[in-house]
Write a structure and sequence with these properties.
With about 220 residues, this protein is mainly β. The protein is built from two helices and 13 strands; from the N terminus they run ββββββαβββββββα. Strands 1, 2, 3, 4, 5, 6, 7, 8, 9, 10, 11, 12 and 13 form a 13-stranded antiparallel sheet that branches. The termini are far apart.
Length: about 220
C-alpha cells in the first residue's frame, strides 16, 4: 500500500541515511541518522532536517530531531505506534521546542492572508492520533502585531484538542499597559470556519489612544483604561 507520490520532495537538495537495517524482510528494523537538505514536505519548504530514527512494525521513534528554515528552528522528539496493524491513525507523542518562528511566514504556510507579524518561541507537547492530533504548551511572542494593533510581548498557554482551541493565562505587554485574557473556540471536526467563541479580557493602565481601532473611531479622545 505504498503511496503513489511521496510527500517529501527535494528542491535541488539531498537526503542521506546512515545506519542499519536488520531482521526478516517482512519485519525489518531500521536504526540510524537521517539528514535532508533543501526540500519540502507536502509543499512546505525547509532548509535542513536531521535526526536519529528507529523504525519497525512496532513503531517509529525520532530523537534529537532538528528542522530549520531561515532563522526558525524546531527541535525535539516524536513517535508513532501502530493501531490495528497500521500507522494510518496510530497514536502519536512528542515534545517540541520552537525558536525564532516568524508569525508572518507561519501565517502564509497555513493560508492566513490577514497581516500578522512577530517572533514566537514555544514548547509543545504532542498527543492524540494521526487523524486527530492534540497539542498543548506555552508560547511567547515578541513584537506581536495584527489588525493594525502593536504590542511589545504576548504570553499564553494554548491547548488544541481537535475540535477546540483553549487559551489560558494570556498576557499582553504594551508599554505601561497590561492585558490579561483567556478564551476558547469550539468548532466541528475539520471545520475551522464555523464555531463558537468565548473570551475574557481585562486591561490595566492602557492608554485609549494606543488602541488603533478605537482612535480611528474617536479621534482626539484619550484616557487611561
Amino acid at each position: 500500500d505504498a503511496p503513489k507520490e511521496l510527500p517529501l520532495k527535494l528542491v535541488n537538495g539531498n537526503a542521506t541515511f546512515t545506519g542499519t537495517v536488520a531482521g526478516p524482510l517482512n519485519d525489518p528494523h531500521i536504526a540510524g541518522q537521517v539528514a535532508v537538505a533543501s526540500a519540502s514536505f507536502e509543499g512546505h519548504a525547509f532548509d535542513r532536517f536531521s535526526g536519529d530514527v528507529e523504525a519497525s512494525a512496532q513503531g517509529v521513534k525520532l530523537q534529537q530531531a532538528v528542522l530549520s528554515r531561515g532563522t526558525t528552528a524546531i527541535e525535539g522528539s516524536a513517535g508513532i505506534t501502530p493501531k490495528d496493524g497500521t500507522f494510518e491513525d496510530g497514536p502519536i507523542s512528542g515534545q517540541l521546542n520552537l525558536r525564532n518562528v516568524s508569525l508572518q511566514e507561519a501565517a502564509k504556510e497555513v493560508g492566513v492572508t490577514k497581516p500578522i507579524s512577530g517572533m514566537m518561541a514555544a514548547t509543545v507537547r504532542l498527543s492524540g492520533s494521526v487523524k486527530q492530533p492534540e497539542a498543548e504548551g506555552g508560547l511567547q511572542v515578541e513584537k506581536p502585531a495584527a489588525y493594525g494593533e502593536q504590542a511589545d510581548r504576548l504570553r499564553a498557554n494554548v491547548r488544541y484538542l481537535g475540535t477546540s482551541i483553549e487559551v489560558t493565562g494570556g498576557e499582553v505587554d504594551a508599554g505601561p499597559a497590561k492585558l490579561h485574557f483567556q478564551g476558547a473556540y469550539q468548532h466541528p471536526l475539520n471545520d475551522w470556519h464555523n464555531g463558537d467563541v468565548r473570551f475574557d479580557l481585562a486591561a490595566e493602565d492602557m492608554l485609549i489612544s494606543r488602541a488603533n481601532a478605537f482612535s480611528k473611531l474617536h479621534s482626539g479622545v484619550d484616557g487611561t483604561l
